[in-house]
Amino acid sequence: KTSSEEHQCPNQCDELGICKIVTEPTAIVKEEAEYVNKFGSFMFTKYSQTFQRLPCCIKIPPYEFKHEGKHVHEVKKMHECDATCPDDLGEHVIEENEKNQNFHYCDVKCPNCAYYVGFDSKQFFLDTVHGNMLLTTFTCEEDEFEFEGHRLTVGDRGDFVLCHKACRHRHIDYCKDPDVCKSLTGGKKEGILEHIKANISPDLSRKKDYISHRVFWERTKFQDPYSRDDRESFKKCDHECIDEKHKNVDDVTGRDPIKSFCTQELFHAGLNPSSNPPGNVGYISTDGHHFSCENPATNIGDFHIVFVVDRSGSMSSGDCRPRCSNSQTTRLLHNHNNRLGAVYEAVYTFIETRKNSRKATRVGLSAVDRDITSLILFDNVATVVFENQSLSNTEELLNKMMSFTPTGDNLYHEGIKKAAEIIANYYDPKKTNVIIFLSDGEYHPPEPELRSLCQREANKGTPLYLYTIMFTGSSGYHAHWGQSLQKMADIATEYLPRSTSKDALKCQYVLAMNEIKLTEHFTQVAESLRKHQPMLIRK
């Protein structure tokens, strides 16, 4: 129907993009939503962004059904020069008219939370506020985990997590080119990515990478919402010093702990643990990370480490074998490709790890390593493989180990009696005595022999610390077998001085079901570790 008067166009703006986006936090719609997974449910705040396509602002002439040109929600006046304009042959006129064009927001959405861009699409990096990560799911190296106080599993949605608050040093994303990643040294490109060798959910068939904070936001094409300080922090490696003082509240002052992170760039090549630390400050961990704090391995004194290892006939089983992770231990494959060979490799790795962790002191100077080690093998009798040896020549110690093969029974008391004899022969009040006792089978705890040894050392003021390890393939393991080893650790604990310090050494029993777990137990004291935390990945 026509009108005799000028009238408003009834159509909406049809320019590309979005006419109006509500970006002010007070105007964003908030609602309480329920999150449900297999562990239960909880409530969270869901934020919704509103956007509008505005009505056309152009008037339709009298007696006409439509106006000329596009439907637009705003018409800008063309620039008119005055006395203040520069004499630049009209260049500023073009610039001013471009500013006065009908402005529209870009219609690109954040790939994680689906919020629209807050500026026009001429920018290379797009800016916006962010909302709930509706387009993501959780991925982690463990199937089940805890995140922000909630129990979750791989594949759970990221709905309750806010997009701009989920960042950290590293993210997980699908690998762009697995063949290229395989060609990288160590599968790493410093400051950019580290290829993940394992197949992790979701979509096990698709390879994935750890990527840096910077690369994560570059791939989204959105502007990084974090501060400059945060961005600088996220560039650094996220490995933490293992020292418990960085994790526990100070018992005296009540102050929160100060974490100590590796000083190198994220995904850096491992540093040589035998070299001086950068700037002669701090220490280099055995896995190649540099920390500016004091090496925790230099804070707990010197040790006499006594390995007491079961060499009975069952240690010839091939269900656990040496991993042969370096050129020295590959020799074990020939005559020791069995449980005992896996133990020899773990002992070798432990000594190497302990030795390297003592290489640098807080000021970067070479420390005098006064640790000594002894190895006893027991079957029906106990045999000393080496005693009171320094950690300096691990190859020679490995050669001595390889002279012995599995045989006989597993008489625990024979091993403890021989350990007591060696500790007495090389008694040093400045050294802490540690026994690492390992067996793959059942025998009653040598209570009289163990109590005698513990009491003797306690009377001297040099308490004994005992670690017992049950090492056996899962197919041949019976739960009650570990009871004797647990009892031995409990007995030794009775003779330790009372301590409220969380840093104090402890006696303990562990179960190592395979060669990998065995090596982990042997080396965890000196290793730098990073807590594996769950992350979000786009669906």
TrEMBL record:
Pfam families: VWA_2. It comes from the Eukaryota. SUPFAM superfamilies: vWA-like (SSF53300). Residues 304-529 form the VWFA domain. Coiled coil: none annotated. InterPro entries: VWF_A, vWFA_dom_sf. This is 11144_t:CDS:1.
